[in-house]
Write a structure and sequence with these properties.
Largest sheet: 8 strands, mixed
Shape: globular
Number of helices: 8
CATH topology of the domain at 40-167 and 205-241: Rossmann fold
Number of strands: 8
CATH superfamily of the domain at 40-167 and 205-241: Vaccinia Virus protein VP39
Order of helices and strands: HHEHEHEEHEHHEHEE
Helix content: 40-55%
Bound molecules: S-adenosylmethionine
Distance between the termini: 41 Å
CATH class of the domain at 40-167 and 205-241: Alpha Beta
Structural class: alpha/beta
CATH architecture of the domain at 40-167 and 205-241: 3-Layer(aba) Sandwich
């Protein structure tokens, strides 16, 4: 069955409220993210590859900001036996749908889905932590501490996958990537009205950093290796190894 179509911003709105991961978004989220984030499907595949390579039996694997569980499912399907998967999200609508989605998957890895703010999540004995387009929604000034706590909770050799929308210092690069991202969305069926209303809703909610800020923050948090492993327009993915 096709995923329900995202029409959240399709009709003119008299005023634009700040974007929230509420029921109306959770209902259409899979369609929304697939048509809005270039490279999203490839990041999910990459998570599967990393799960196989870095998942360690007897450890925990965290998916922070798990939404409907797309990354959580990739982890469960590709981890070696003996890993425990922890999905975390602070949206009730997302967690209830994620729990239903996970219950239909019969992979071996044990799991739990927590309705929790990731800033409260206790990270311990971890071999993998995933932040797939989630850190960008956490207040900027708290990101440093979150990465430090993640690094502390990882075992040596464990990894963080961090995927984010990014911004560019260079104004012509920023303008070009923004235009191409809008063209990508148009080609995937979004109207100019939908693009501009969603953009307004995300204005003070999704705060992007530069690639350099991400790299520096990951090094500062204690990762000994930091590599950019993917970029598609203004969406970048980094791998940190403790
Ligand atoms: C863009 S979605 C992530 C997509 C998902 N990781 C995937 O791979 O499909 C961001 C998610 O992060 C969650 N989120 C945002 N801030 C959070 C926080 N402080 N604690 C927990 N979850 C949070 C939102 O509710 C939303 O479901």
């Amino acid at each position: 069955m096709a995923n329900p179509k995202d029409e959240v911003y399709s009709r003119p709105m008299p005023s634009i409220e700040a974007f929230r991961f509420d029921q109306s978004v959770a209902d259409v989220f899979q369609d929304m993210i697939e048509r809005s984030v270039p490279g999203y499907g490839l990041v999910l595949q990459l998570i599967g590859v990393l799960a196989e390579k870095y998942g360690q039996p007897g450890t925990r694997v965290y998916d922070l900001g798990c939404s409907l569980g797309a990354s959580t499912l990739q982890l469960r399907r590709h981890l070696p036996d003996g890993c425990h998967v922890v999905g975390v999200d602070n949206s009730e609508a997302m967690v209830s749908r994620c729990t239903a989605n996970l219950s239909r998957d019969h992979s071996a890895a044990s799991y739990e889905i927590l309705l929790e703010d990731l800033r409260e999540t206790n990270i311990e004995n971890a071999s993998i932590v995933i932040l797939n387009f989630t850190l960008q929604f956490v207040p900027d000034e708290e990101r440093k501490n979150i990465l430090a706590r993640i690094c502390e909770g990882l075992n040596v050799g464990g990894i963080l996958l961090l995927a984010e929308k990014v911004k560019f210092e260079n104004s012509s690069e920023q303008a070009l990537m923004t235009t191409l991202h809008h063209d990508f969305k148009k080609q995937h069926g979004y109207s100019d009205l939908e693009i501009s209303q969603k953009r307004a809703a995300l204005e003070n909610v999704l705060i992007p950093n530069t690639e350099e800020q991400h790299r520096q923050r990951m090094h500062d948090a204690g990762f000994s290796v930091v590599e950019q492993c993917m970029r598609c327009l203004n969406f970048s993915t980094f791998l940190g190894i403790k």
